[in-house]
Q: What sequence folds into this?
């Protein structure tokens, strides 16, 4: 792989991150909301306090967060913070820092989405390969329709359905939260089992909604490989069924699936925002949803920028490993 190609791809990645970061800076401010004023007014109403001196307090907080400066000064200060990896303090939850809030919620989201994402991709791709294989058991075709039907349901809507059935009707799973209330988090098997028990319903809602899409895409690619010359030649050589299926059919059909793996990452995280909020799961999605409701600029900017970089890096990494997945692809020319 040529160094010039790597540098060009890295340059495109940096440009995309800069454009996305700029849009990330502009969108919250285009709403016209004043997060500091709204927060102080809400606290004044809840506490029954008068509004005397409120404007002076607002000005003090605007100076503290730099919101009293000109728009372009705020923008360059924001870019400088992004380069340093510092996203300031949370407006709605001061004095908590944005990075601390992200790092506290990140393990929950990585644990939930990482496992369900890999499971849905692996199981859905394998089922799709079997659906498109002419010598697969016919009984598998019976689950193809239900999988496609579940794929058409949004994550959060399927989560609400599972929540109603299994938490309120049958009552075998908790209705929300990351662990039992009153439990002190610790590195123990009891706490790990408690967390896994509470993650079953949100994970199941994402898993069921995703497998059908992966299965449909893989089935279409498997069907296209059946008439290829290399499949006919391999079959004529008398290779085993297992070798034909995995080394010839699946290996050549899986490349578009791997491409979709990175492209779907952003969509999965955005859809999981509402799933985490439905189940009150203490992950990145819940923090982002609450920050949007509270117009917490810095938290929204920090989380969205983190998601942008994650999706961009995943796409860049997959582009680099394409030649490993398929030797026919080369960036030498």
A:
């Amino acid at each position: 792989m040529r160094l010039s190609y790597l540098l060009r791809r890295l340059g495109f990645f940096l440009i995309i991150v800069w454009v996305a970061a700029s849009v990330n800076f502009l969108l919250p401010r285009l709403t016209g909301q004043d997060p500091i004023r709204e927060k102080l007014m809400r606290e004044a109403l809840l506490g029954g306090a008068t509004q005397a001196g409120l404007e002076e307090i607002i000005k003090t907080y605007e100076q503290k967060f730099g919101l009293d400066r000109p728009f372009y000064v705020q923008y360059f200060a924001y870019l400088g913070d992004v380069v340093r990896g510092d996203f300031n303090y949370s407006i709605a939850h001061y004095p908590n820092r944005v990075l601390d809030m992200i790092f506290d919620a990140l393990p929950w989201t990585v644990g939930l989405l990482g496992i369900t994402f890999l499971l849905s991709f692996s199981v859905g791709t394998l089922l799709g390969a079997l659906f498109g294989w002419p010598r697969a058991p016919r009984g598998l075709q019976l689950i193809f329709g239900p999988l496609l039907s579940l794929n058409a349901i949004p994550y959060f809507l399927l989560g609400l359905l599972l929540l109603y059935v299994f938490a309120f009707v049958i009552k075998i799973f908790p209705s929300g939260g990351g662990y039992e209330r009153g439990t002190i988090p610790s590195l123990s098997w009891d706490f790990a089992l408690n967390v896994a028990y509470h993650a079953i319903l949100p994970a199941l809602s994402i898993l069921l909604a995703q497998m059908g899409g992966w299965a449909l895409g893989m089935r279409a690619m498997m069907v296209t490989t059946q008439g290829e010359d290399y499949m006919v030649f391999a079959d004529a050589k008398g290779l085993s069924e297992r070798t034909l299926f995995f080394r010839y059919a699946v290996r050549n059909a899986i490349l578009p699936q791997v491409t979709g793996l990175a492209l779907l990452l952003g969509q999965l995280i955005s859809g999981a925002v509402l799933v985490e909020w439905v189940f009150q799961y203490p992950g990145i999605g819940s923090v982002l949803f609450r920050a949007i409701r509270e117009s917490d600029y810095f938290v929204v900017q920090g989380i969205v920028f983190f998601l942008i970089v994650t999706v961009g890096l995943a796409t860049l990494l997959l582009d680099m490993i394409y030649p490993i997945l398929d030797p026919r692809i080369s960036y030498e020319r």
